[in-house]
Amino acid sequence: MQYIDYGEGGGPEVLRLATAPTPAAGPGEVLIRIAFAGINRPDCGQRIGRYPPPPGASPILGLEVSGSIHAVGEGVEEWQVGDAVCALVPGGGYAEYCTAPAAHCLPVPAGCTLAQAAALPEALFTVWDNLFERARLQPGETLLVHGASGGVGSTAVQLASRKGVRVIALAGSAAKAEACREWGADAVIQYHDEDFVAATHALTEGRGADVILDMLAGPTLARNLDALALDGRIALIAFMAGAQSTIDVVPILRKRATITGSTLRPCSLAHKARLAEALRREVWPLLERGECLPRIDRVFPLADAAAAHHHFESLRHVGKLVLDCQTA
Ligand SMILES: NC(=O)c1ccc[n+]([C@@H]2O[C@H](COP(=O)([O-])OP(=O)(O)OC[C@H]3O[C@@H](n4cnc5c(N)ncnc54)[C@H](OP(=O)(O)O)[C@@H]3O)[C@@H](O)[C@H]2O)c1
């Protein structure tokens, strides 16, 4: 099969089409003929050598795919050859074929294109795990979303607003702000133009946000504590603004704050299978009604993965980028 190799690692230009043996489905796995693969920020981290795949995972880039089941491994009964699925994978997505644990596959929702389906798993598993489970986000609460125009952020905005949460989105441009409003954000703060802490307090009668999705950390973590309501929760999923934060702990005590963190890729097979079940129950009915579908900013042929990473790292995208894996 053809796949995207990143050689010794480096900038987007290291991404090249190469050939490797097609993997085989092991026990409990399926082999997927990939239609599209979603692009995620951890792919860039892996490309530059800062985010190695966990033990046992494919060394090929790519954490989410859509396509059709090409073969099933021993013990797999819930999927048949030919079924259209999307899947969370621990690696291997930038290719024509990849294996996936059967329990991490979900059916392509009716009315969802295969390109959109490839953009579902990574963001949905992350948002469900961090906001709805770890941070216990409830209807009627206020959620503040950093990076709201990106893959994870846009999913958080759409899903939370459909679940009766009041959503305040942070956006870096007018075009991104407009997209956040279309996805259901109740208010958008263009954080380059106004102070997001003051704006959050102004929008919540001084209460602050009940839950904050923080993918920046660094100096932003202290500011998020300032923007947090009493009994508030901060869900940390990344540290795009820096891994080191200096914070005053007093507001954590005074606000009875909870700071949670997690990273999806190394979570156990069982944990991800449980998340897949929760998504099927809680989110798939929305997707089947045409709600919460991802916005695809651009589709790139697999062979143009370098251009796709270039575009992704320019931060101009709104929503998700995907690779068309059958055009290699
Ligand atoms: N913990 C987990 O399990 C998990 C799972 C998936 C993803 N993640 C992480 O979550 C983060 C978001 O992922 P994503 O796929 O949504 O990425 P994305 O599509 O690139 O979106 C990130 C958005 O954040 C905003 N941003 C603000 N400051 C930034 C900075 N210093 N660098 C980059 N972006 C900045 C940008 O929007 P504006 O221009 O509007 O500010 C950007 O569009 C990534 O760091 C990713 O690795 C974590």
Can you offer a commentary on this structure?
The protein is α/β, with parallel strands linked by helices and 328 residues long. It folds into 2 domains: 2-120 and 293-324, Quinone Oxidoreductase, Chain A, domain 1, CATH 3.90.180; 124-261, NAD(P)-binding Rossmann-like Domain (Rossmann fold), CATH 3.40.50. 29% of the residues lie in helices and 26% in strands. The chain contains 11 helices and 15 strands. The strands form 3 sheets. Strands 3, 4, 5, 6, 7, 14 and 15 form a 7-stranded mixed sheet that branches. The longest helix has 14 residues, at 121-134. The radius of gyration is 19 Å and the shape is globular. The termini are close together. 49% of the residues are buried. The mean pLDDT is 97. The structure holds NADP nicotinamide-adenine-dinucleotide phosphate (NAP). NADP nicotinamide-adenine-dinucleotide phosphate binds at residues 40-42, 122, 126, 147, 149-153, 171-172, 176, 215-216, 237-238, 240-241, 262-264, 315.
